[in-house]
Amino acid sequence: MYSDPLKTTENWVGANVCAYTGVFCASALDDPQLEVVAGIDINHADIAGYLPTELGMLSDIAVFHINTNRFCGIIPKSFARLTLLHELDVSNNRFVGSFPEVVLQIPNLKYLDLRFNDFEGKLPPELFNKELDALFLNNNRFTSTIPDTLGNSPISVLVVANNHLEGCIPNSIGKMVNNLNEAIFSHNKFAGCLPPEIGYLSNVTVFDVSSNTLSGPLSKTFKGLEKVEELNIAHNMLTGFVPESLCKLPTWAILRFPTTTSTARIKNVCHLLGRTHVLMTQATAYQIGLSRSQQNNVKLW
């Protein structure tokens, strides 16, 4: 540890570890008479340093939260011994290197948060075979494509925004119908068409693919997004027509569509269907077909 300006670890001395700031203890699962370290939470402590290998000795720990500090280096390989770890949050630090594959060896991990670091390179296919519930990878420097194993994941929340990911969103995403609630792919380099299998995601509430280079039309299958509350497809290179079925989604949904700057009149069928939560954004050619009489009543906002 190089720096602890808030003196969070000032009392980390002596044998009474359970009294340390940010350390939480509980009875051991295999021996209720024994008190063990069950969690570490030193979020927002502004601590600078490396994670010591000795952390792998905390075999009973279930929660490890160190977000918003200045830890650097890599995640120790000794973390593979943390067999009871459920939540790992190392977000908003200065970790570097390729995806920390040691996390793939943590058998009971459910929540993984790596956002706002300097991880780079490929995402391992094995990542989406894990029994994760939430995965946050945004604001790193990951590259290449999302593996086809995406569809194997039971994840309910997936955020990969603000990386350098490219290629297509895998068709296998349609297999995530039972669990996926939020998916955010924005601000990457995804290209190609949006797979029609996205329309199978009947439990999704947020779906954001904005600010990529996606092209082609929207599939009519998108009407299957029955629970969507926010759908953002703005700032891409989509063409064709927005299916009227999208404007018949639940009335509380916010739909962010791109508009065309090449026509004098924006043909906004959603507005004429009474949708007041449709946000039109300045982007490339994407039109919604209406008759000439309907066009005269269009409002742009």
Automatic annotation (TrEMBL):
Major location (coarse): secreted
Annotated compartments: Secreted, Cell wall
Coiled coil: none
Record carries keyword DNA damage: no
Record Gene3D superfamilies: Ribonuclease Inhibitor
InterPro entries given in the database record: Leu-rich_rpt, LRR_dom_sf, LRR_extensin-like_regulator
Keyword flag Secreted: yes
Keywords of the record: Cell wall, Glycoprotein, Hydroxylation, Leucine-rich repeat, Repeat, Secreted, Signal
Protein name: Cell wall hydroxyproline-rich glycoprotein
